[in-house]
Write a structure and sequence with these properties.
Layout: H1 8-20, H2 25-30, H3 41-51, H4 54-71, H5 81-93, H6 105-124, H7 153-165, H8 170-183, H9 187-191, E1 198-199, E2 204-209, E3 213-218, H10 221-233, H11 253-266, H12 268-273, H13 277-292, H14 294-301, H15 322-333
Antiparallel strand pairs: 1-2, 2-3
């Protein structure tokens, strides 16, 4: 078949355009950028790991390590989607079996997210194009509906009573439970709280949570008093972590693990349903939504104002004020808040 021939007028027009731009045909050939040689997984994973937040490093570090273990000497642009799927199958087969496990879907999602994070950096660094990113060619599993639900008041009271009547530091555990119930904060928000984040006059605390988000959240005068007293008694430095053990060491996620294991040993339903701090968040946000509406609940939870999964364009215009959050807190705790409406 004869190859199509360019019209001479088209060629002349292209030459004229190049001349006006000061570019010769040779410049197009000689000036093409040379892509840098892609590094190996063993070389590149530490670079990416050092460039992300501590939270992402904690979430993805295990899966990056598995990639290095499997492909350490290979360049990052030499792995194809089928090999990524093989890694996923291996991770799922070797995962820790939990009673609330869901067939390894979470492990699969985390492997893909970890590799997508790595390859996004590789694309930005010029080692490949987005079209060549193999992690984007592996679909994430569809998320199943959460099994968490709001706890009834009676159950909430049960677990609080166990928390403050057992263990080696009931004062700390009681403070943790109340902090999560009042604010619906995530564990990261509680662990990141510092004495300088307390606005005692307005009864507000500054929460720093996932995605680098910051938000001021109202708390009751009682909780504010206990947070301040805890910081003083346990010698928390102004810009250091507020929540500490009696020996003044900072608490970690392990405190939560031990707390729920201990509560579950005394309350079988807690162990059976794998109740955690996130259930407290779910409980509070559900209560706020039922009593004060979606906009207040969304703000109370610290969710983004507009996301692709939101309920519609109207959500971007419906915003709750701090006064509305304070009113919701007052109704929840039975205490008047400085920023709330005047009692009627």
């Amino acid at each position: 078949m004869e190859e199509p021939r360019l019209d001479q007028s088209t060629v002349d027009a292209a030459r004229m355009l190049l001349e006006r731009m000061g570019i010769s045909p040779n410049d197009l050939v000689a000036g093409a950028p040379v892509r840098p040689t892609a590094p190996t997984f063993a070389e590149y994973v530490p670079v990416v790991s050092a460039s992300v937040s501590a939270g992402l490093r904690k979430a993805y570090g295990t899966y990056w390590a598995r990639a290095v273990e499997r492909w350490g000497d290979r360049r990052i642009d030499q792995v194809n989607p089928s090999e990524i799927r093989t890694l996923i199958a291996d991770v799922k087969a070797k995962r820790v079996q939990r009673r609330n496990g869901r067939g390894g879907r979470s492990a699969e999602e985390h492997v893909i997210s970890a590799l997508r994070c790595l390859y996004r950096r590789a694309t930005a660094d010029g080692f490949m194009t987005e079209a060549e990113n193999p992690a984007l060619k592996v679909a994430k599993p569809k998320r199943l509906a959460s099994t968490r639900r709001a706890l009834p008041d009676s159950r909430l009271s049960e677990l609080y009573e166990v928390a403050v009547s057992s263990g080696d530091d009931p004062e700390l555990d009681g403070l943790l439970i109340r902090l999560h119930v009042e604010t619906a904060c995530r564990r990261g928000g509680a662990l990141g709280l510092r004495p300088v984040d307390l606005d005692a006059e307005q009864c507000l605390i500054l929460l720093r949570e996932k995605g680098g988000t910051f938000r001021w959240q109202p708390v009751s005068p009682t909780l504010m008093h206990h947070l301040q007293a805890h910081a003083v008694q346990r010698k928390a430095p102004p810009t250091g972590q507020l929540l500490r053990y009696r020996n003044r060491q900072e608490i970690t996620y392990r405190r939560y693990d031990h707390l729920w294991v201990r509560i579950g040993a005394r309350l079988p339903w807690v162990a059976a349903q794998q109740i955690s701090a996130h259930w407290l968040r779910h409980t509070t946000i559900t209560w706020v939504e039922r009593n004060f509406g979606y906009a207040v609940a969304r703000a109370y939870a610290g969710h983004a104002e507009t996301t692709g999964s939101d309920i519609g364009a109207t959500a971007g215009y419906v915003k709750a004020s701090m006064h509305e959050l304070a009113d919701a807190l007052s109704a929840l705790t039975g205490e008047q808040h400085p920023l709330g409406s005047a009692p009627r």
